[in-house]
Amino acid sequence: MDSSLELKAKVTQIKLPTRRSLRLATEPTPIGPSASVKEGKSLEFIEASPKRKTKLTQILEDTTDKNQDVPAPSSSKSKKRKYEAAIIPVEESQKSSTPSPKKRQKTKVEPVYIIPEVEKKKSTFKGRLGYACLNTVLRNKKSASESVFCSRTCRIDSVKKNGIEFVKDLGRKNVEDLLTIIQWNEDNNIRFMRMSSEMFPYASHGIYGYSLSYCAPLLAQVGELAKKYGHRLTTHPGQFTQLGSPKAEVVKASVRELTYHCEMMDLMDLDADSVMIIHGGGMYGDKPAALERIKRTIQQVLPQNVRDRLVLENDEMCYNAEDLLPICEELDIPLVFDYHHDILFPSSISPSKIIERANVIWARRGIRPKQHLSEPRPGAITLMERRAHADRCESLPEDLPDDMDLMIEAKDKEQAVLQLYRMYGLQPVNYASLRPPDENQTKETKGRKSMKRAQTKAAKTKLDLPEEESELSSCDEDEREMVE
Q: In the record, which residues are listed under signal peptide (predicted)?
């Protein structure tokens, strides 16, 4: 009797459960992760509501026998209502016992290029073909970290902000990539290349210039690799190098630029075949006087090691081959004959005669002859349009000597060389290295000419040149990559 009264008193102290609460409280407890979204939400609800769980536990202890099952209530409309299940939460480790599936990584798909056939031609040429500064296959890799090129540079403000060590590091990276390009060239039977003039940014600057000795070990590796494979490396200092300028500060800046290029090749321990090619420069309203200044600067101002590597080239604006040949013969300075420039600004002497006279100088100096080849872009009519170089060359010149080196100054760089290999059967070709030509090539140069003035101005700033130094030849060079 006393026990029944005691039980009745306990029941009156708490809220009696509904049938729905009893049914939910007696459902089996899950031992693994939630089987559904609703069940998962229920677990979270119980964790956040400890009072409700305690109330139901008290009810079970006071109103049910531990060994007796509570019958489930009959179905009713209340079953269809949304409710939060009152079940005991499982441990966090049990929730995450099933590992989530790993995401499949995307497979890198290599592009497939359709390479058109080329017209087969014949030639007795047995020399080397080369290209200038930039390898398009290595440069155009999709990942920026994989892109290989040797023309990292920066604005003068970046030098002031980051210091000269920042600039030196750009030069070091350029040289490292040059090693990669030389190896690629060897793998593709190209053993002649023009190095970028931007290898060491601001090295010849009047204020921020620096010695290349910090990079001597790496430059020595370049020279060793080139000699191992029998590669010829040359340079073409920028159009702003003006040995015939009437202004002393311009000549001094030009000499610094040539000295920098010479130091780079000397640290590579390159032989006499590694030459520096420059144009005559501006006429300054008096061509004969400018030619005399060029001659005097070479004779009296240039250091001997610089003079030993110096070569002159005919251009399409100011000095043709006939203008420069007398100076070259008098000073024993080799002459590079440029076919494209001769077409635009021809001499009265035939190309074959000019080449014959020029080769005498090359032989006397013990240096292997070299020439330049490029073609005007299709559709070009005016002189300014015809100055721009085509993407590729469609043939070798008729006057080309059999045994010499020919620099291909085309926009498609190494692809222009590989196409000539295929056309004339000059070297085996690795077809995986081929890229198709632009089928929609026009007289425009994809925006590069529009940048010419800005690039020239930047170059003048680097060398402290005055703005009026504007008689510049359009010679092929690599695109600069500004690093801030």
A: none
The number of C-alpha atoms within 13 Å of 279 and in the hemisphere containing its C-beta is 22
Please give the C-alpha separations between residue 456 and each of 71, 235, 257, 314, 468, in angstroms, as whole numbers.
93, 18, 15, 20, 11
Helix (H, G, I), strand (E, B) or coil at 226: helix
Average per-residue pLDDT for the chain: 82
d(CA 449, CA 476): 11
**Closest C-alpha to 417, from 185, 114, 87, 76:** 185
DSSP state of 133: S
Q: How far is the C-alpha of 203 from the C-alpha of 200, rounded, in Å? A: 6
State which amino acid sits at residue 289.
A
Task: Calculate Rg over the CA atoms of the chain.
Answer: 39
DSSP run (H or E) holding 370: strand 370-373
Q: From residue 231, how far is each of 219, 222, 359 by CA, in Å?
A: 15, 10, 21
pLDDT at 100: 62
Are 361 and 334 contacting, i.e. CB atoms less than 8 angstroms apart? yes
Identify the structural domains of the chain with CATH numbers, from first to last: 2-72+82-92 (no CATH), 128-434+449-482 (3.20.20.150)
* Dist CA 40 CA 98 (whole Å): 14
**Burial of 150 from C-beta contacts in 10 A (0-12 / 13-18 / 19+):** buried
Q: What's the order of all strands across the beta sheet hosting 405-408?
A: 232-234, 192-194, 128-132, 405-408, 370-373, 335-338, 310-313, 276-279
pLDDT tens digits, one per residue of 379-416: 999 999 999 999 999 999 988 999 999 999 999 999 99
Amino acid at 76: S
Supply φ then ψ for residue 158, to 5 degrees.
-70, -35
